[in-house]
Structure formats: C-alpha cells, structure tokens
Amino acid sequence: MRKLLASLAITVGAVGVAHADLQADADAAAGKDKAQACAACHGQQGISPTGAFPNLAGQQASYLAKQIMDIRDGRRMVAQMAGQVDNFSDQDAWDVAAYFADMEPALGQVDADEALIERGRTLYRAGDMAKGIPACAACHSPTGEGIGSAVYPALSGQHPEYTLSTLQDFASGARNNSPANMMSDIASKMSDRDMEAVANYVLGLH
C-alpha cells in the first residue's frame, strides 16, 4: 500500500509538469466548434443520456485531453470512437477538453440499497487495507472532482453503468492507460460488488 501511494505522489508531479503548458493554451471557444459531433453520444451539455457513454461536463481538462489523444494514438481502444478523433491535433484535443471542462457537471441521485452505498463510501473514503485497495479519494478528491494537475478524472455524477464498465475493463486488462497502470492494479483487487458499490456511491458524490 505504501509503495502504491508513493507511486501516486511521484506520478502527480511528473504528469503535472508535462501538461501545464498545453493546458494554459487551451481554447474552449475553439473547442466548441470541434466538439459538435460529440453531442450525439455525450449530450449537448456534456451529460450523456445513457450510461453507455460517460458524462464529460465538468471533467478535468487534462484527463479529457489525454483520453482523446490516447484514443487517437491507439493507446486506448474505444469502438464507438473509431475515426472520431483521428485527425485531431494535440491542440484540438486540449481545446475540446477545455470546452467540456467549462460546463456544469452532472449531479446524480443515488438509488441503491443502503448496504451497497455504505460499502462504496468506505472504499471511496478509506479503501480496504486487507485487500490492498487505497482510498479513491486520494486521487479523485473527497468530493469526486479529481485532480487536474495529475490527470486524475472527476467521478462525481458519473453514470454508474459507465463507472462499473470502466473498472471492469481496468481489472480485465481491456484498458490499461491510467498513469503507471495504477487503475489496473487497483481494480484487479476489487470484487464485482466492490465495483458496483463505488460506481453507485460516486453518482451522488459532490
């Protein structure tokens, strides 16, 4: 656990420096024009109508820019995004990311059994030492807004279906583009119920 937390701290510093200059030049107004096609899946206001696609409104710009570039460059495979960002420059990615980051984030309403939500709260705020799972709040902040300087995403208000499928993909290795591959290590230690619990808890977190 201590080694993992030390790795998190090192990654925060290194990634933050690498992204600072690009983020400073991001143009949300330019991003609005480039993001028109995104509305079909992610909603006009960056809030997806279905859990098959993530909400993007209020997401950390650094995280969104990285995902766009990872998809473009083949480091993250998303079938629904095939061809969508192939012609994006790094500047385009940052502009679109800034556009969505400026939107009002979704605020979810939890509708799950109390025991499940309590398990989610425990994992999010304290982790599970016995399983080697660190607290989600360490990277995603106590309110779920994420840490932009470290490229850690906001989770607050995200569709439970999307959060659950993302954790499953990290656990299975279908997705492996988190900093230092940390999420694959963490998710692989979570049970199906742990994943469901966290996914439902963050929906109403803000």
TrEMBL record:
Pfam families: Cytochrom_C, Cytochrome_CBB3
Record bears the keyword Oxidoreductase: no
PROSITE patterns reported in the protein's UniProt record: CYTC (PS51007)
A Gene Ontology molecular function term of the record: electron transfer activity
Annotated binding of heme c 1, by residue: C38, C41, H42, M81
Post-translational modification, as annotated: Binds 2 heme c groups covalently per subunit.
InterPro entries assigned: Cyt_c-like_dom, Cyt_c-like_dom_sf, Cytochrome_c4-like, Cytochrome_c_Oxidase_Subunit
Chief site of localization: periplasm
Location within or outside the cell: Periplasm
Signal peptide extent: 1-20
Cytochrome c domain mapped to chain residues: 26-104, 115-206
Classification via PANTHER family: CBB3-TYPE CYTOCHROME C OXIDASE SUBUNIT FIXP, CYTOCHROME C4
Name of protein: Cytochrome c553
